[in-house]
Amino acid sequence: MKSEKKAEIRAVIIEDVEAARDNLASLIENYCPSVQLVGSASSVVEGLKLIKKEQPEILFLDIELGDETAFDLLDVLPEMESQVIFTTGSGEYAIRAFRYAAIDYLLKPIDPEELVQAVERHAASKGIAREQLAILGAQTGIDAVPERIVLKTLDKMYLIEISDIQRCEADGNYTMFHIEGRSPILVTKTLKDYDKLLDPAGFLRVHQSHLVNISWISEFVKVDGGYLVMRDGAKIPVSTRRRAYVVSELEKLS
What we know:
The chain is of the alpha/beta class. The protein has 2 domains: 9-139, Response regulator (Rossmann fold, 3-Layer(aba) Sandwich), CATH 3.40.50.2300; 149-252, CATH 2.40.50.1020. 32% of the residues lie in helices and 31% in strands. It contains 8 helices and 17 strands. A 5-stranded parallel beta sheet has the order 2-1-3-6-7, sandwiched between helices. Helix 1 (18-31) links the parallel strand 1 and strand 2. Helix 2 (44-54) crosses helix 3 and helix 4 runs antiparallel to helix 6 (130-139). The longest helix is centred in the first third of the chain and has 14 residues, at 18-31. The radius of gyration is 21 Å and the shape is elongated. It starts with 8 loop residues before the first strand and ends with a helix.
């Protein structure tokens, strides 16, 4: 049932495909009563003019805009005052890049529930840092692993070298990152989220509660059920069902 809540958030859509633009506008109208759509554009030039005129709080931005990209537009914006929610039809590597950069995105065709969640997250967001855009811009659509990842806590945003991450440990619906040379960082995402994300970067899920950087493993001790000794001395249990997998991955290093 459509809510009668008064629109409070000004938004614009920049999308070069008319059907996709109209579909998103319809979804916003029907599912996001707090959002007032104040305009739309189909190119970088039109989008820049629209943003400067309307000063929107949310910018729904397609990645590919004809012969240009969203990054061509963002590069010429004087300040990142709008909260950007990217819309994309790209594949898994692009999606992984969004997750590394901790930037909100909507995968086409856009799911109404995901749209609502993205808008709700807007209220708690502090915007996108240039460093996040650099990570995303360098990796979108490329079969490669970024050198850095953005970790968001309740009150801060950290840019961390992936090679410095020793291990990740589940803490309920949170994940504790153990990082060389600094205090652990508690992130508001589950270990499952980072398992898939960090797998291409050489991380192993060795236990329900533990994800480790293979380059930080010092020993695999087979007694007492089996456990890993990390270079910092930490002892990480290896679950029975993952033992063969861990052994196989370690043997590949030889």
